[in-house]
Design goal:
The complex is a heterodimer of chains A (about 350) and B (about 375).
Chain A (H helix, E strand, L loop, with lengths): L2 E10 L2 E11 L4 E5 L6 H9 L6 E6 L2 E2 L5 H4 L1 E4 L11 H10 L9 H14 L15 H14 L4 E5 L7 H18 L2 E6 L2 H7 L2 E6 L2 E6 L1 H6 L4 H6 L4 E8 L2 E4 L2 E4 L10 E6 L4 E4 L8 E10 L3 E8 L3 H4 L4 E7 H7 L6 E6 L3 E4 L4
Parallel strand pairs in A: 3-8, 3-9, 6-7, 7-8
Antiparallel strand pairs in A: 1-2, 1-4, 4-5, 9-10, 11-12, 11-14, 12-13, 14-20, 15-19, 16-17, 16-19, 17-18
Helix pairs in contact in A: 3-4, 3-5, 4-5
Chain B lengths: L7 E5 L6 E8 L4 H12 L7 E10 L1 H11 L1 H7 L8 H17 L10 H38 L7 H11 L4 H24 L7 H39 L2 H7 L4 H40 L3 H11 L2 H28 L4 H33 L2
Parallel strand pairs in B: 2-3
Antiparallel strand pairs in B: 1-2
Classes of the chains: A alpha+beta (about 350), B mainly alpha (about 375).
Chain lengths: ~350, ~375
Amino acid sequence: MSIQVEKIHKEFGSFTALNQVSLDFPTGELVALLGPSGCGKTTLLRVIAGLETADSGRVILEGEDASDTHVRERQVGFVFQHYALFRHMTVFENVAFGLRVKPRRERPSEEEIRKRVHRLLDLVQLDWLADRYPQQLSGGQRQRIALARALAVEPRVLLLDEPFGALDAQVRKELRRWLRNLHDELHVTSIFVTHDQEEALEVADRVVLMNKGRVEQVGTPQEVYEHPATPFVYGFLGAVNLFHGRVEGEHVRVGDAVLPHDGRDADHGIDVVGFARPHELDIVTDPGVQVGVEAVVSRVLAFGANVRVELDSLPGAADRGEPLHYEVVLTRDRVAALALSDGQRVRLVPASLRVFPREAA
Amino acid sequence: MSRAASGSAVLDDRAGEARLILAGDWTLAHHAMLLRQVEALRARIDARVKVDAGELGSLDTAGAALLLRLLGSDRVRTLVDSDSGLSDGRWALLAAVDGAMAERSVPPAPRKGSAIGDVLAHVGEAVAVFGRHAVDLLGFVGLTLSAMLRVGVRPTRWRLTSLVANLEQTGLYAVPIVALLTFLVGAVVAFLGATVLADFGASVFTVNLVAFSFLREFGVLLTAILVAGRTASAYTAQIGSMRANEEVDAIRALGLDPVELLVLPRMWALLLALPMLTFIAMISGILGGMLVCVFSLGIPVSMFLSIIANDVGVSHFIVGMAKAPVFAFLIALIGCMEGFKVSGSAQSVGEHTTSSVVQSIFVVIVVNAIAALICMEMGW
């Protein structure tokens, strides 16, 4: 089922949670709503589910205006951050609950319910836990049961509110992959809310980036990562090094240094902020080189395939528009060739800076 | 002026215009001495005084605070532009200290208001809150009644399991405490009656006193208050923790009505339990009274019972019992409503639990008083 939201506006007192949000979720896709906490993503999800009503705007489910329909009629499956399993019921009862309480006409037979619940528990790979109570399960298991419960009523849309937020890193990673596989199997239109950019980029077909109640960018994970539309998106998706400077033709002047930029949004003479991802900076140790900005190596963190180098800028960096700290990611070979040592003075050369006009930042 | 290590502030107005000369070390070590100078000079500093800090030695936060005291924070802010000889670093320190002091010393300005005004404002607020609660309760009553009608005509949607479980909790488990308490109160009332009535030689009317009071008022009132403390709080805590745990949202997301699922069984359970408990309370209270009559007044059991049978009309029993369902309805609804008002945290659960107990006891007593008035007027 496709979902559209049109100009959704929602305020809590004087706080604007959603500011004229319009979005389109095509059928069968897994979309991530990504943003910092308090950006309105959970509110949007709850408005779509019908658990919250918007002050203005429309929610359109499969071409039909569903703004005034009750949660009941929207047929959504909702998975909560803290599982919200019914504590006094066994796992089996929890999953069966949604079916058992249906009006008699729509209710499947007891036999059918049992079959369906076991099929769902198989799907979430927890059939052997059917007789346990939620307290006896681990967080990851509970969340999978919650998912099975949401799927039991055969929802047309699956909404997940920070489903892995309360789990530890290892389990999150595992469940992420599992969720992706599950979605590929079921192809239910799904929206999931997260503040973890890695999670969103890894799992979703498309990512919606939100900030302060507005949509900043919508795109595939690759699009939003490689071509961030706004400074916020750039800063939110992964580590960045941020420069303040002024465009001079093909270059950006940052303090005394002159750095190349990518040419977009860069009219001559305007003040800009420039971004460079850690892997887009290179370290040059040759004292003869004059390009790039100067910095001092503070730490070399060599684990994994890549080496992370942390550097401090020279005194007075803030006045020149340089960041106080840099983060650079290099390959092991490159670091071995450079033979960096702590406290060494080097120059950083960005391949190119992504620049945005200053006032937009 | 000597270049003493100790700091000093001297006001020099010989050269036509006043100049404040700051010199030496303005540090914690010289704080006491500097403070005296500062206090002495403070009154004479005005906007025209020029500041010369050229000979200032060391400066620490204590000294900076003193300088701010001497010059005032507005004045200090202008120093960096004037030719005061204050270095940027010093000025930054002053600004930082100024900021810190301003942050700390912003006491909420003591609002000037008359005592009567404050009292009136509080009263107004309290009345507004009370009105809001009343409107909330009415709204919730409506919601529950409409759900009741919807579900009432479809016996397949009655949730009997939940009803029985709640009945056990609110009814059966409350029997010992209700019985014990009313037994004791019955005995106390009988003692009281015996003592007072003995002066008039009318000790025998103690029987009537105990029977009347327990059938009409004490039986139902004591039970309702106990149940309000026991069950209203339990309902609030149960529903509140479900809300905090998003279980209520989960119920709604499954397409179900939380009022139908959570409130109706609880309300019906209490509607059934409270009259039964009231009956037990009446019997138990009268038993307590009887015990006192038998042992301390020497009225035999048979006489006690025959006085009740002859003098006490059944209407009193009916009046008492008729109030029970009304109280049950109100207590159950207040308990559930406060549960739904819980938002997020465990603290909120606690707050609303307290509120539900207070509200339900209040409502019970008020409604009982109104009922007493009506019964009196009607001669029931």
